[in-house]
Amino acid sequence: MVIYPIVYSIIRSLFDRTGGTFVGLGNYADIFTDQSMLTTIRNNLIWVVVAPILVTTLGLIFAVLTERIRWATAFKLIVFMPMAVSLLASGVIFRLVYEQDPDKGVANAVITTVQDVFSSSGGYPGARPRPNDEAHAVQNGAVLTRQPVAVGQPALVPLVALKPEALPSDAAPAKAAPAATGGLSGTVWLDFTPGGGGTAGKIDGNEKGMPGVTVEAVQNGTVAGSATTAADGSFTIADLPAGTYTLRLPKDNFTASFNGVTWLGPALITPAIIGAFIWVWAGFAMVLIAAGLAAIPRDALEAARIDGATEWQVFRRITVPLLSPVLVVVFVTMIINTLKVFDLVFVIAPGSVQPQANVIALEMWRVSFGGGDNQGLGSALAIFLLVLVLPFMIINIRRFRREGR
Q1: Angle, nearest 10°, between helix axes 269-295 and 72-80?
Q2: What SS3 string covers 124-166?
Q3: Which are the contacts of 295, defined by CB distance < 8 A and separation ≥ 6?
Q4: Mapping DSSP to helix (H, G, I), strand (E, B) and coil, where does residue 393 land?
Q5: Which residues of 385-398 are buried (b: 16+ CB within 10 A; e: fewer)?
Q6: Residues 245, 224: contact at Cβ < 8 Å?
Q7: How would CATH label the architecture of 34-112+262-373?
Q8: How does residue 120 score in pLDDT terms, banded at 50, 70 and 90?
Q9: Do 236 and 184 meet the contact criterion of CB atoms below 8 Å apart?
């Protein structure tokens, strides 16, 4: 059951896609000359270097925490729970977690929420004055009045190029602001009447204000005051010295809202999938390392503390060395798992970026059964993967035998 498939795969890898023409090592040469194959090998190297280290490190941290927190059993259950979920189901979960739309993807929902706490975007991308508007201009992304506005003189700032449904739900019908004594007032609104009609540059009955727009009063290049528009688009900049000012709507008002990180894009797809892998396997590492921690003689730890060692010194000089056999087993096991990873990459990576996220196991399936129909090259990839896994399997077997003796 083991030997025959291996031998047959070796033989099949020496033939072409039809299985009728002997090509020798030609399929193996293709692995190391084809650009997409080289990308696949590079991705596997990233997996082998990054994922086992992170899984082992997190497993060690979690195992130490379980000895120091009250609800250790509940903590272990929560961390280990992903092991009860198949990798296919985990892939489906993280495909949803990494959705670009913050309303669907948990990762971007958290990021955009935190980002909005520290900085807010105007939310009116693309809005601008009419092309033939002689009273307003666009300069470096900001909208400003062409002519200075005097204190006490109401100003109108009509904008277009924005869909009515893009306005916030609290947007009210636009209203002309009354003249402000000792300040500047005005209205910023969407100068568009649904269904047509209306007069350009004037507030009509069905047109709505643009709330939340920052308006600045600029004099001699210096911002003398600012205000934010209300629900009806009106604003008042109070306590300004007499004179004339240029009204400016900074470009931040027209910057597109931050919509999260493109987790499933070509640049981040591999780190994103590695994150899902860590979520699944960190519990496994924690359980094995916790068992190793329980087997450490407490006398050695207490003796070190009595001798004046700090907790960090005890951990670094006693706990970790005594745990090294378990850590090596976990680390090597994770290397084998990363070399064989298939499900997560297949499910999480969209078809458009799957070539950038590809790994050897997935490429083996793709060229053999996923449309490539080249079982000669697929068999060569299978043998190549076997050669990569064998050294780490031998390391584990030898360690198990030493421990058995």
Answers
A1: 140
A2: CCCCECCCCCCCEEEECCEEEECCCEECCCCEEEEEECCCHHH
A3: none
A4: helix
A5: beebeeebeebeee
A6: yes
A7: Orthogonal Bundle (1.10)
A8: low
A9: yes
Q: pLDDT by residue (tens digit) across 275-333?
A: 999 999 999 999 999 999 888 888 888 888 888 888 888 888 888 889 998 999 999 99
Tokens of 343: 């499900």
18-47 pLDDT per residue, tens: 888 999 999 999 999 989 899 999 999 999
Task: Give all strands (DSSP E) within 201-272, no chain letters.
Answer: 214-219, 222-228, 234-237, 244-249
User: Taking CA 45 as the corner, what is the angle to CA 42 and CA 46, rounded to the nearest 5 degrees?
Assistant: 90
Domain assignments of the chain as residue spans, ordered by start: 34-112+262-373, 136-254
Return the amino acid letter for 273: I
Do the Cβ atoms of 57 and 372 come closer than 8 Å? no
Q: Which residues contact 196 (CB under 8 A, 6 or more apart)?
A: none
Can you give the pTM of this predicted structure? 0.74
